Amino acid sequence: MTTAPKVSKRKTVLRLSAVEDSEWELLYHYILTSSKLGSRELVNRSLRSFWLPFAYRETENFSEADLKEVALDCLAQLYAQMLLISERFEVTPQFMNQSPHAGSVTATAISNLPDSQDVPEPEAPILNSPEFFDYDDSAFMNMLRS
């Protein structure tokens, strides 16, 4: 596979915020405290599985074969996560009993994806507000303790 284009050496920081007692706060707390992988690795793997093929395509630096290889790898990761959820919570959604290439399943899944233009940009958090935290484990844990 073609290697990724060189990216500047600057560090990219992802900051997340959650309103107190929201499902996002619950999720971020779970990620930070429950993962054997470490929170950064868990978040990175999750984001990679959902969005890396789109990021690769947008750069236009990869061949169609490379894009398909990355897409298949990401689909395998997403499918493994679906199986884990299905097993742990003893549920099997109807679409898992159909072929992944069945037109109705694919069309339904794609039609339910939000268009990036339809998703509003989140408001920038106020740095002094209690719901703001840096994507730094210690900063988040300090916020939970306060």
Tags for this model:
146 residues; 52% helix; flat; disordered C terminus
Can you describe what's shown?
The protein is flat and about 40 Å long. The chain is an all-alpha fold. It is built from five helices and two strands, in the order βααααβα. Helix 1 (23-34) crosses helix 2 and helix 2 (39-59) packs antiparallel against helix 3 (64-88). The protein is 52% helix and 3% strand. A two-stranded antiparallel ribbon has the order 1-2.
- If you average the pLDDT, what whole number results? 74
Q: In percent terms, what proportion of residues is strand?
A: under 5%
Report the C-alpha radius of gyration, rounded: 18 Å
The N- to C-terminal Cα distance equals 47 Å
Q: Short summary of the structure?
A:
52% of the residues lie in helices and 3% in strands. The protein is built from five helices and two strands; from the N terminus they run E-H-H-H-H-E-H.
Topology of this protein?
Elements: E1 16-17, H1 23-34, H2 39-59, H3 64-88, H4 103-111, E2 132-133, H5 137-145
Helix pairs in contact: 1-2, 2-3
